[in-house]
């Protein structure tokens, strides 16, 4: 009997053990699968592939609809996208809380929305949530810290660092995820402690599965510190490790935009668009980036594809900018008004007021009612003055206003021509991207004193070679000789801005004239700038007699500037000199 009982027990134990092994193995496999799925979602968000991340998190919800945390991960994608969708995020966070009243992550999500909207009481909410959790869960501590670093105006980096150090300590036994260190680095960046931030990124590098992510962050940190060589090295290293890591191309685009290498930046954005996904939020960001490099065609093309799929009212603002550039002031005005009506007040910027002013200036050009025209002009001046007073540099306000108020260039056909010009026009028509031909045609127009033709041809050169400084200088000369002083001053300024620091010594004489020309053209409207630029012209070329004379006159009590005739003689000399510039 005992033997039978023992045999029975042994058989029972064996069966139970086998079943337990199967159950345990199943649970273990499920946990691994869940961890892998969650990790894939986190990596997708980090790679700015929000559509893929949402697909992953939706699958997690489908498999485990009663798991409150799954709703947090999905909602969080709407906070971390380029333009947060607070309503959509709140929808999922509330679903999680409905399933579990203690859903700490979802509560942190709702507190994060407060921070995103500028409400600092979200910080106290997060502290209370962490306190309720008894600081036992590393992920709760991490997400709390992440929330405190997500929005600059409502950040709390010291508290975030405290939570992250605790999260790292809690996670130590299982292994610290790289993104804990990423966020620690971000917190130190907010505190302007780049050394500590880089140390955190170094720690992330030691555990990261994809070091491209780490190197990209290091690169952007070096950019923030204006260490451009080191920044480029890290960004290049990120792309070398993972050529499909989209954020690295976005960082490279920002690097090239800073160096005013728009052609390279455009190629970077093409790669970014290639490796980021088709999520409307990402595509909207791409459209905005194209706009920043003056690639209006690609910006419009990208925006049009996703316009009806995007809920964020910022889409109306971007389209308003594009319509403004196209000279469609009425439609631009409608879209800008739509943005201002739909957007939260804290999202309406000084630049938006400036754009409104430019649009009003455009509308005033065709307004026939004197009273309405006067009102538009008054409002336009006030809005543009506001943007300028705030030193907003979204657009070159004076340049854009000059284009509207008489800055438009007539046809090249209105000016003189000759057999050389006509022959070159035929060649350019057959080879519109041949910059050597454009260079020859622009100089032929200048020699014939066809200033419209010269301006328009130099503009074609600028479109093809946006970083080639001499084109702006020559265009300035053509504008000036054609009598369009506002546009001339702007072209000269662009020339000055485009000359790289390493090339200043080789271009001192030409730079001196550009500064002198702006000083002369601004002497009646902006005396402070005229004095600054006249002094700079003399500094660059002390033997430049006209610049020295103007500098002395501008700083004398009884200013008697050089005559327009003297200036015109100087222009003629410079126009002649410019035709000898090699391409």
UniProtKB/TrEMBL annotation:
Compositionally biased spans, kind Polar residues: 553-570
Keywords, ordered alphabetically: Repeat, Signal, TPR repeat
TPR repeats: 212-245
Cleaved signal peptide residues: 1-35
PROSITE patterns: TPR
Pfam families: TPR_8
Span list, region Disordered: 551-583
UniProt-listed Gene3D superfamilies: Tetratricopeptide repeat domain
InterPro entries according to UniProt: CellSynth/LPSAsmb/PSIAsmb, TPR-like_helical_dom_sf, TPR_rpt
Membrane spanning stretches: none
The name this protein goes by in its record: Tetratricopeptide repeat-containing protein
